[in-house]
Amino acid sequence: MKTTAIACFIASASLTCAATASELTFRTEAVPLEAQVIANGLRHPWGLDFLPDGSTVVTERSGQIRIISPQHELSPPVEGVPEVVARGQGGLLDIVASPDFATSNLVFFSFSQAGTGGSGTAVARARLVREDGGARLEDVEVIFSMAKKSRVTRHFGSRLVIAPDGTLFITTGDRGARNRAQDMQDHAGAILRINTDGSIPADNPSPDGTKHLPEIWSKGHRNPQGAAWDPVLGGLVTAEHGDKGGDEINFPQAGLNYGWPVISYGVTYGDDKIGVGTEAPGYEQPLFYWDPSIAPSGLASYQGDMFPEWKGDLIVGSLKFALVSRLDRDEHGTIRSEERMIEGAFGRIRDVNVAPDGSIWLLTDARNGQIVRLSRAD
């Protein structure tokens, strides 16, 4: 698929009116948007998922899980969350509910876990038990832990996606040591795939570990902090931080190498060349890249009914420019153009989620973080 570079935006949404202190209306290319603040006062919220009863579960990087009721009431912290290393970019990160949550009460969450040599990305599962007096995690079990820990406090990756076949995808960053992304005996700089009990799927690229660690699905990733299952392409899509320039949208395939730091569309922060250039034999090209960087984080493949104009498009949050990027795609998944929306209205966008009703929920990365719901204003 041809790589597309967008260096400047095509159409930025503009603020048109303020309804209340927590509701704003924005203009986009196709539809007007209403933005409603669902919750605030969250400490660097990182991940969110929707539960069958209409409530939502959200993580705070400092180590708390909260539940938001259908009436948008914020719960006290959930009890029983394991200790996390909340330093730098680390802490309590993504969370997803099991597809059978209504009967199992299972949730999966990623976090930076302490260990020999420092910390590393880990994933746990637990039962979320809710009672009138609050909520707690029971039967907490770590089902994945990065083998090589380090004292570096950046590039944990940590997005979680449960695929239609029931397997669990985990993204990991290079932990600030770029060559780890090309070490096949290292979990860093990779897309990992495991079963939800922590075992290895038999159809992983190297389930016996002979070519590379058995959890590895693909390698050569710098720091993918956005990931979603995409029905259009029939697989996982990821949003990945580049260095200075070279943020990418990738479609990771089993056993393939996505190049970091051998190839990149960016340069170092000192403006030096990275690797051998933008392409080389044996390394895959991104579907799309940004230069300059937008610092992409949350990613969703829009399949909702509220915005039929956006059906099949990718919705990406930007930390650097505090905006939402909509990547317009054709029916084959080819990215044709970009629209930038709500720039600067709410701050750094950490996560993007599509609710069951088709609205889009955003998390803002701040000490006083918010959950913002985008719906049609017409």
Number of domains: 1
Rg, Å, rounded = 19 Å
Regions with little confidence, pLDDT below 50 for 5+ residues = 1-21
**Biggest sheet statistics:** 6 strands, antiparallel
Classified by CATH, the class is: Mainly Beta
Percent strand equals: 35-45%
Helix content: under 10%
Please, how many helices?
A: 1
Distance between the termini: 36 Å
Q: In sequence order, what are the helices and strands, one letter per element?
A: EEEEEEEEHEEEEEEEEEEEEEEEEEE
| CATH hierarchy: architecture | 6 Propeller
CATH superfamily: TolB, C-terminal domain
- Count of DSSP strands: 26
Strand order of the largest sheet: 2-3-4-26-25-24
CATH topology: Neuraminidase
Indicate the overall shape.
globular
**Structural category:** mainly beta
Mean pLDDT: 94
Written description of the protein model:
By secondary structure, the protein is mainly β. It has a single domain, classed as TolB, C-terminal domain (Neuraminidase, 6 Propeller). It is built from one helix and 26 strands. A hairpin with a 2-residue loop joins strand 9 and strand 10.
Give the topology.
Blueprint: E1 4-6, E2 14-20, E3 23-27, E4 32-42, E5 45-50, E6 56-60, E7 64-68, E8 92-97, H1 101-104, E9 106-115, E10 118-131, E11 134-145, E12 160-162, E13 168-172, E14 190-194, E15 216-219, E16 224-230, E17 235-240, E18 247-250, E19 288-290, E20 296-301, E21 314-318, E22 323-329, E23 335-341, E24 349-354, E25 360-364, E26 369-376
Parallel strand pairs: 1-19
Antiparallel strand pairs: 2-3, 3-4, 4-26, 5-6, 6-7, 8-9, 9-10, 10-11, 12-13, 13-14, 14-15, 16-17, 17-18, 18-19, 20-21, 21-22, 22-23, 24-25, 25-26
